[in-house]
């Protein structure tokens, strides 16, 4: 039986939740949620945006919580609205954008889709416009598999076939294999962006599209009609020898793509030139201004560590609640904020039978805690009490100049020290990136705006302020038409003084 015949047979069965054996091609007769549910995994705190193209213009259809995807297209109104040229967000968003009301379907929540609102990274992906290099969809899939055979890239987890081909690499969290990868902290997004660029370089000869590498991109819904060729979007799910779909962590993909991606290596010793200064009363007075910042950072460290572990485990529960209470007392938090913070730390906490911590117990600890003096406990003491591993310390130190240490029980293992650039070097790098983005958009016939350029910079790991982007666009000779005005000449000033 040919591959096309197998695809037609499976399409006639139209059973969504039966995974085909590889390399079967499925072309459902209507919008299908198999790929969507496989990527988003029913996370209750994640939203999936939907959009469509009507007469060449984008329309926001709405967004759906990830745990409601499976029965979405049983609603005939939703299925009809998303039958042609319809797209879904590859990555989960933070919220449903209640501040925006302009969307097409009242049955759905409003859409919120931008690079700042990404909560979960579900996959790495490349959009292969293989028709630009003389390949059809099956030729593009074969070209990808040749790269896999050559050891250049790992096997993709999903292919979606339309006029071109999307190749997706399923991502999961190292500590929670059943969940997608959270986008915190910024170092995770930075590593993911490097992998995206590496996959783009490896698949460049097959027609990889650089404009779809950012984390807020959308892809066609399997089973919908592509109006450019009149065919429905199909999908293929390769599997390993055990019949399971491929899934990767960031470490796995970095190991495969090591020639194309630079991985930060842990420092073996303390950097040279870092010496302790003698106590200065003037510095101490300045340090009082950052006293609250120290406790705000500890608050965020405790939240990140809790999320990375999927909740506090037995052995660290009491210590975690103690330091949360100490932080709330130091920040003079309001009672409502205190209850909200403790409720977040109690979620997904490992609670053995007969020894459960409740919100009442946490408030009792808070009421018995006094305001700390002289800065409170040092970070090493907190790391020892919470058993912070070197990997966890590396993630907690990614966005801070002063690294958070691992526990001393790990033999003095050093956390990863993220290299920093000087201000001048960072400005030159950002200016070169702005020039490249402006040239690419201008060549494509698009008049670049500050918002567009900023979104493209975020896709490669740069996050400047909008005012900085607008200033750089003026420097490279491509000012934003929406935000810049031409400066008046001297003659104009004389005729029309202010």
What order do the helices and strands come in, and which of them pair?
Elements: H1 3-13, H2 34-40, E1 47-54, E2 57-65, H3 76-81, E3 86-89, E4 92-93, E5 118-121, E6 123-128, H4 137-149, E7 158-161, E8 165-170, E9 181-182, H5 186-202, E10 218-220, E11 225-226, E12 231-232, E13 234-236, H6 250-256, H7 281-289, H8 291-308, H9 317-330, H10 335-346, H11 359-367, H12 379-386, H13 390-396, H14 423-443, H15 450-459, H16 466-475, H17 490-495
Antiparallel strand pairs: 1-2, 1-3, 3-10, 4-5, 5-9, 6-8, 7-8, 7-13, 11-12
Structural class given helices, strands, pairing?
A: alpha+beta
Mean pLDDT: 82
Number of strands: 13
Helix content: 25-40%
Report how far the terminal alpha carbons are from each other.
81 Å
| Uncertain runs | 1-22, 265-277
Shape: globular
Strand order, sheet with most strands:
2-1-3-10
Domain tally: 3
By DSSP (H or I, 4+ residues per run), the number of helices equals 17
The rounded Rg comes to 26 Å
Beta content comes to 5-15%
Oligomer: single chain
User: In this structure, how is the largest beta sheet organized?
Assistant: 4 strands, antiparallel
- The SSE order reads HHEEHEEEEHEEEHEEEEHHHHHHHHHHHH
